[in-house]
Amino acid sequence: MKRVALITGITGQDGSYLTEFLLEKDYEVHGISPCTSHGFFNHDSTIHFADLADGTNLREIVDSVKPDEVYHLGAQSHVKLSFELPVRTADVTGVGTTRILNAIHEHQQHTGRQVRFYQASSSEMYGKIVESPQTETTPFHPRSPYACAKVYAYWQTINYREAYGMFACNGILFNHESPRRGQAFVTRKITQAAARIKLGLQKELRLGNLDAKRDWGFAGDYVEAMWLMLQHSEPDDYVIASGETHSVREFLDEVFGHLDLDWQDYVVVDPEFFRPSEVDHLHGDFGKARRVLGWEPKVSFRELAQIMTDHDLVAAKKEKVLADHGVE
Ligand code: GDD
Fold first, then answer.
1. pLDDT at 87 over 90
2. 23 pLDDT above the threshold of 70
3. CA–CA separation, 325 vs 328, rounded Å?
4. 101: which of 6, 54, 139, 193 is 20 to 30 A away, CA to CA?
């Protein structure tokens, strides 16, 4: 019998990599998505439409799919946008987790089946950090409506584990990127702009805080850690990180350097892209995941920057051919 996985946020960056990973392992993969109009669709998976802000059909989906594993990746995941949409973010990212946990709990009670649950927790929860590197025991100090919603969801996941014995795990994932990263996140914004600048399609790149430091890894590596958590004998919480920290400036150095350009000739610092409160420094310690799950990252910071830049250079070249032929 094939194992069955249900992924919320299946059309996002992580959802798409996780789908490929699970199909490779011969899972039957189902996903939940709020709409058809954007994202990555894998035709070997089945999509069910539901909004995490409206739990009415979540229970029906869980009852019909009968998943062995649920990966809860769906969220309003943009930190800056969460300052503009704090209530929507709390509803989707925070209470949305309770809606899916509750649907699984009711399904388990009704059918006697066991479902394993993965919660996409975030290093943003550490916010104004109290120690470095951050581990599973570092206290949280969230600095955005997004991070507050993620802290709530983190504790709900633990609460369902402790109250009902649910096999529920938090993966505290530090920033993870890829050529599939959304264009509003800083790494992809930089690689796309650098590639377009290289080909004369764009003249400048407007950014916010260049001093912020993040622990950036490759999303394709991180989805394996999600799966490993749900294969372990006990449910637990794990930091998943690269173990290195770099500033936005250093990412610019890597990307523009790879294209033989100097970013200082093109980058304009624009207050528009600063946040009302910032997370200055994130640096994860993935020692527990290495020890207990045997997980470690494979793609380095430099390789990640180059993979993303090379991908966006190919896209920019296609765009240039079209532009040269007057096609928009
Ligand atoms: N997005 C963006 N755009 N960020 C910028 C810009 C810009 O123009 N200029 C500077 N930055 C800085 C931000 O202020 C932040 O300090 C850093 O670049 C990274 O920003 P993002 O790439 O937007 O990611 P994030 O760290 O806020 O959040 C991401 O990682 C979290 C895990 O730690 C998101 O994927 C979250 O959903 C995720 O939980």
1. yes
2. yes
3. 9
4. 139
CATH number at residue 152: 3.40.50.720
Query: Which region holds residue 182: left if phi is over 0, alpha if psi is between -120 and 50, else beta?
Result: beta
pLDDT tier at 37, thresholds 50, 70, 90: low
How far, in Å, from the CA of 186 to the mean position of ligand 1? 6
With 0.90 as the threshold, say if the pTM is over it.
yes
Q: Could you give phi then psi for residue 273, rounded to 5 degrees? A: -100, 5
3 state DSSP class of 154? helix
Position 34 scores a pLDDT of 87
Which helix or strand (DSSP H or E) is residue 196 part of? helix 186-198
Ligand 1 binding pocket mutation candidate from 79, 84, 128 (most atoms within 8 A of CB): 79
Residue of 154, 175, 207 best suited for mutating to test ligand 1, as the one with most atoms within 8 Å of CB: 175
Q: Within 6 Å (CB) of ligand 1, which residues are found?
A: 77, 79, 122-124, 174-175, 184-186, 189, 207-209, 212, 214, 248, 273, 275, 278-279
Mean pLDDT over the full length of the chain: 97
In whole angstroms, what separates CA 153 from the centre of its chain? Answer: 15
Kindly state whether residue 295 falls inside one of the protein's structural domains: no
Residues annotated as part of the active site: 122, 124, 146
Going from the Cα of 59 to the center of ligand 1, the distance in angstroms, rounded, reads 33
Half-sphere exposure of 237 (CA within 13 A, CB side): 20
Asked if the structure places residue 291 within a domain, the reply is no
Structural domain for 197, as ranges: 186-213+245-281+300-324
135 and 16 inside one domain:
yes
Judged by average pLDDT, the poorest of 34-43, 44-53, 137-146 is: 34-43
Shared domain for 73 and 198, answered yes or no, is: no
pLDDT at 56: 84
The count of other CB atoms within 10 Å of the CB of residue 163 is 9
